[in-house]
User: Fold this.
Amino acid sequence: MSARALRQGTRVEPERLSFYFDGLRYDAQVGDTAAAALLANGVRLMGRSVKYRRARGLLGAGAEEPNALFNVGEQPRLIPNVQATQLVLRDGMRLASQNRWPSLRWDVASLLRAGGGLFSAGFYYKTFIWPSWRSYESIIRRLAGLGAAPQDCALPPVALEYVGCDVLVAGAGPAGLAAACAAARAGARVVVCESEPLCGGELEFECGRIDGAPAATWLATTLAELRALGARILTSTTVITDNGGEYIAHAEPGGVPGHNTVYRIRPRTMVLAAGALEQPIVFCNNDRPGVMLLGAAERYFARYGTQVGRELVLFANHDRVYASAQRLAAGGMSVCAIIDTREAAEIAVDGTVRALRESLIASGVQCLAEHAVIDADGGHAVRAAHIAPLRGGATSRRIRCDAILTSGGWSGALQTGFHGGAAVRGAGALRAGSASGSLELGAALADGHAAGARAARDAGASGTAGVPPQGVGDTAPRVRAFARSPAPRSGEKRQFIDLQNDVTAADLRIALEEGFIDIEHVKRYTTLGIGTEQGRSSAAVGAAVLAEFKGEVRSNVNASRSRPPYQPVTLRSIAGFHVGEAVMVSRRTALHDWHASHGGVLEPMGLWMRPRYYRANGANPFDASIAEARQVRSIGGIADGSTLGKLEIAGPDAAALLDSLYLSKASVIRVGRSKYMINLREDGMVLDDGLVLRLADDRFLATTGSGHGTHMLSHFEHYRALSGRGRRVTVTDMTEAWSVIVVAGPQSRPRLARVLGTSWQAALGKLAHMDFADGTYADQPFRVLRASFSGELAFELHCRPSIAVPLWEALVAAGLAPYGLEAIDILRVEKGYLVGSELNGQTTPFDLGMSALVKQNNTCVGSALLDRPAFHEATRPRLVGLRACDGRSQFLGGAQLTGADAPNYPCGYVTSSVFSPTLGQWLGLALLARNQPEGAELTARDPLRGGNTPVRVVSPVHFDPCSERMKG
Amino acid sequence: MKTPSPGCLIEHRPQRRVLEFAAFSWPRVGEEWPDWPTAAGAVIRDGEDSACLLQFAPGRVLAPNPSAATETLLDAAASQGAGTRIDATGKWEHFFMGGPGAGRLLACSVEVNAVLYKRDCAATTLFDCPAIVARCRDGFELWVQSSYARDFLTTAENFRALLQRPDYCR
Assistant:
């Protein structure tokens, strides 16, 4: 593109840069937004609509823009849906339009317009039902949506900041700054978020005076005062949602997704002074590129020196259109006509407006009262406007133009308040300035000051807010409601209300005729205000048109509720630091690095990382786990059991508390002994299992499942608190204070004795099953517990984390090889021990074969409900063992079990299955209906993974039923 | 706005012995003992500004690197029936965050001034990791549950590097 004359505006610098749009290079100036630069380069066509692929240009100049959404960058790291109006250009930036193929100008899918009737409101539900929705789904999904997802989501990280303050002010226009100043003067800690890079709002355009000085002087003084009072002013930062009293603000200087900051602000009170959004007026073909908001045209000229067109038609329903026309004409644009929907007499009421209008007429501008733009000519750009009187039925006239600037009044930018439920509760943040309807400078300042003073008072600040600033500027415009130009029914299909989603007046009429009365139902049926648009430019107009069709007054129809975020943000921003490996926090044992550096393949178990198997033992998990299990059964092995939850219960009432929490009594355990025990939920289902060690008369250590430690701590603390303040017992999480090394296998005792030394040899020999001994090892507290979950002679070594690695390495040196979770599962299933999936919150002690524990008649949480008849029905599950009938075939956990008599009705399912190197075949545990006897032949059905396998029900204890090996 | 974020030092301090004391009831525990952090959030420090006793949650006291006097105090409290003393060595990893940017770095996870409002220490969650945070003369002392310590440090270091980049300055 050829070099153009330098433009002058409040936002642009004289330095030039270049950028690419759809592969073509364009010139711009530093400070330009993509929208301003493209307009300056004569580009009008900037996008295609989602449904009909109609040509679209800019509507607005800020966050309200629904059409000009660009891809920024290139695959694999492009960022979609960036508003051209918010994107400040950088040299060499590459932008691309969306929703078109092969090009923006020639889009194949725009042929869909020919079948526009097929895409009316609710077309998903009624057009594509024959032969079935599935027949069309893939095509529609390919066409639907905004932009393309990046193929690589590795965006730069997001800086987070949690911010506390007394008063948060959203918006730094006159009202917002007045509010912030009043609150800060009263002593409140104030944070101001302004979505634009500069503070001042409308003061950027208006030539008003505040406190007797030019507005710009007041702006500079106020900002200086705010900073001196310690207020924090965050520019280019938009409050994107109210998350239940915590406001999320997104800072994206320049609008370029990537290097940005997410603020989580928790104020005591909030003032919403985010201004007002100018609303369009709907007429036929109002979506042509070149139909824009009047205020946007003024902004493009004032900020960037960009003319939105050469021949303008202005179409409005309020006084301010005349002052705007004067400013645009002064900027070198030719105002061909001003179309005012109001009667001439109403316009003439205000002397200033009357004089202004007369002067415009004198300068050759056609000023038509009680007229409307009813249609626009053009394809990729507006060529002419059709004007018709609102009364009298005279024929329309055509006025040649290249831009139609509409203004249908203003609607407060209250979307953030809606996110917090303000529309529902009628509550929410204090509103000030044009957000609350104060469109005149003096009123906005007074409004803001009052809101700020009240916010500070509500936040507990006791100082005085000072005197409100006195402002004189443009008078508040008189607005006569007018949302839509008259059109025949056939024309309503071209009256676009939601430009982003191609929702027309005809769609609203259809929705209403089909019984969708409520605005929220209409929204969902027609897609009005969905997507990134969220009603910023369509909600108020949509509500007004719906009210017209219903024959009701506008106030009876609410605008649809918008959803967060207020502006498009990347998912990366929402994710914060929870991406990649940090998507979820991980817990590591003291032996983690050893496992990782010795071929341990770590996998998450809850938050914990545990070794699944060791590569040194096999090339794949199956081979390695078989080798590891075989090693344990033949010689011995060691496993890292540090992830077991460990709760220390201490105090004179410790035994009583445990008696109330476990199905069997802890009070009967002797010091130096341990016991396998289970907890119940309040409804009688098994909650967790583990060992309870009695360390002293008044001290116990309870172990829990690896993933259950935190939950069990809460459970214990809950019942400790419920048991009353008089009870003398405490519960302390000791999970990380004790590393646990499990030593299992026939050679475990002699090899352990060799490692621990002579001081422990005698103790190891004396320890009976479930006994433990306390002492020291390497001058640290140390405990050896004889307990087994593998069916082998086994010991648990409890040591401080600081000595876990040297102890582990000494055990490895003694010939005890490490084994992982897969091998643990094999050993447990062989012995019929619970693996974990059996404790699913739906099993009772009876189901799991623990009736003996119930017979101890201890009264504990959940025990009262064990007598429920339903717990004893024949269809309740019970834990059984399974083996393949042919002794060879594999079956997997999760397979459904069916009998020959009812092949379509499962009578149970496989909870775990392993290949047993000891028995040379696949074994399993299952939860099976009690009426299925041992010896029954069933089918393990697993159609998605492995097909059907005939299995036989056997005892859950597959190996060493008398536990001879465990006894040593 | 574009001034660089102030620097921050993250120091992983060596593991020492740690005791915890849990009171049977609260808040009356320790009123009769002069060296006891009677209020929730109170911290008793020694002459070198090291934290000796921190009541990090109601009725829960942490005694990092306890002196003989501190051990005697905790034993006395336990023997008088006020609560239980537990040797929690290995449960916590000790960190120090200092420098002018320490508060900003912590603000990536919590608003530390709100957490420590009218108190000197508190149990909280930093970057999803359970931790105790205490204000000290030059910054903040942190005790993070040791199984989370690696992730805590990684995330904190990532944010520290990020905040030093000029294009992130606010």
In short: The helical segments of chain B are 68-79, 102-106, 112-115, 149-164.
